[in-house]
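Input sequence (280 aa), recorded before submission:
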Amino acid sequence: MQKILVTTAELAEHIDDPGWVVIDTRHDLMNPAKGAQLYAQGHIPGAYFMHTDEDLSGLKTGGNGRHPLPDLGVFAAKISQRGITPDTQVVVYDDLGGNFAVRLWWMLRWLGHEKVALLDGEYPLWVKEGRPVTKEVPAPRKGSFVPRPHLGDTVDVHFIEKFHDDPSVRLLDARAPERFKGITEPIDPVAGHIPGAINRFWQKNLNPDGRFKSPEQLRAEYEALLGEDAAKTVHMCGSGVTACHNAFAMELAGLPAGRLYPGSWSEWVADRSRPISTNT
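Predicted structure, token format:
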């Protein structure tokens, strides 16, 4: 089984390995320019930067959510410019426990690239341990990435409209409990959740130090939450980004990763006729 989580020590051993490519995905939903600014101030040597809005998302129509999936040809070209071939080991990181890096991890896996892993502890742990950082931007490299989408790994809004309250689906929402319950909504125009959904805040996948909980602990927690329904899971959040964190954690735990609803809450509430719930 392909390893999906690497330690800072493992990455340090391969920092000059041409077979490894590192990608920085730091981002701030409230300040979209912040990730690039932080990257310019310092990053892991050799790391390329990819922007959640500009590189990992496509064109917004006003009805397809805040982070729709990008055009696959455009995305593939950007990935190839970072030197990624079918044999490349990709390592992705951010500075928020994988909050944004998981989107790229999921996208590469969805598009057929198995050799991609998250950096455990992310950039804060790398810096805390005194490992090297640089302001140097690596030159583009020639890769050969060809997207091969795994059919069935995603569902669309029409599927959710039909099955959100059906026992054949377990809709798992990764947003903070206050947003899920409708107590507050700092980003989207409507608060609450899709009827039938259950809540698993993505930060529950991490220990207090920002590293992932053990596979054994994650498995116990997800089995307690989902019972026998792990294979039925459809992941969502506000816009299809942090939803990937729960998918990652389930795979790390040795459970089926489930499917992704990329449009998520921001797409769902774009049509005010769709039902919402504020019940816990």
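Checked by second reader. The chain has ten helices and nine strands.
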